[in-house]
Amino acid sequence: MVLPQGRSRGSGAALAYGSGARTAQERAGDHEMSIASTDRQEALKRMQRSVRARDTRETMNKLKQAKWIAFDTETGDLYIADVGQGEIEEVDFQPGSSSGGENYGWDCMEGNECSADSSGCNNSGCVCDAPGLTPPIHQYTHSDGEVITGGEIYRGCAVADLDSTYFFADFDSNRIWSFVYNGMLQNFVERTSELDPSGALSIASISSFGRDAFGEIYICDLLGGEVFKIIPDTAGPALDCNENSVEDACDIRGGTSVDSDQNGIPDECEVAVPATSPMGLLIAGLVILTASMLIGVRQWRTA
User: Model-level pTM?
Assistant: First the structure.
């Protein structure tokens, strides 16, 4: 994928267009789950063992149309974008520690509301507002969109402030949102304007999200057949000191580069000052002078 150069770290996000990527039609409905580090690989193995140990029908009990799911590779948590019926779209959640069997309430419930057909639900193993039901962690009505498209959890390194943020959208309204969930929903933000592509490009009919080996997120546009990548929105020189077309932070996180002093700069990009150089001798002299002055002050105080 060819991405614009000259980007740097920032708290915001923007979209980059990749002309060499697969079309959205080819990727629609795909769920990518690539892992970058050994720790993430171990997390994925634990998550896969957990999923295999659970009956799929029990894991997905009482969901209407859960077309898009996403696993958090750090925690094993499962996010489920469930397309609604007549009124409500929802995001459901299952923690990585769960043994499965959650009842998400369809067709007695639509989101947190009793569904229009709830009067006849008693025979389906679901009762409206029953205490054992698992409610969604987020929902919205059809005034904001009518077909939810999920979704991915950001675990990348290019925009550190977005760590653990879940992104999702609506296919009908073309709106994009994000939030962080850690037992309670936090940092809910609408990203539609922020992620509006520059120039003549536009994003519409969002069909799917994807994630690469570094945890960066991609958005598939079915209408235009495009794939966009979420990148930092700040201008400036690219933080790629070794010029390998990978962000320095991603090099460090993936183990390609070492950052011994943990200052965010790969060791190969830092030039040590030789002790015998003029600058090295000056620094050594200043250190010796400062130490001598401190010793002198200490001796004067004790005299």
Answer: 0.68
